[in-house]
Amino acid sequence: GTATNAPYFSEDAKVMYFYTDSCHWCIKEKNEVLTPLGQEGYKVKPMNVGENQDLAKKYNITGTPTFMVEGGERVEGFQTKEQLKALLDKYK
User: Fold this and answer.
1) What's the pLDDT band for 1 if we cut at 50, 70, 90?
2) Is residue 79 within 8 Å of 33, Cβ to Cβ?
3) Full DSSP string of 19-85
4) How does pLDDT run across 19-59, given as a tens digit for each residue?
5) CA-based nearest residue to 67, from 52, 85, 40, 51
6) Nearest C-alpha neighbor of 65 from the set 11, 18, 6
């Protein structure tokens, strides 16, 4: 859908972002954190577990939002701009 064309989404991003379109915290994350970070050039890889349940199974996602690096760090729940920026800076 249109979401994957968002300025903060990139299929090449190292940090995966697991979300659903209806999750309250995901919407808050998108509006308050991802959108401003996207304007600064930060990107996350879109993983819509609402549309694709297999992603949740594959990566053992129990809640959204979840940010995860393949084979590495995982943070669950709403991240502030400072928290997410620190994570993304580690995996540029």
Assistant:
1) very low
2) yes
3) E-TT-HHHHHHIIIIIHHHHHTT--BEEEETTT-HHHHHHHT--SSSEEEETTS-EEES---HHHHH
4) 999 999 999 999 999 999 999 999 999 999 999 999 999 99
5) 85
6) 18
The one-letter amino acid at 86: A
Neighbours of 74 (CB within 10 A): 13
Average pLDDT in the chain: 94
Q: Is the pTM of this model over 0.90?
A: yes
Strands 15-19 and 45-48, sheet pairing:
parallel
Residue that the structure tokens 């819509």 belong to:
48
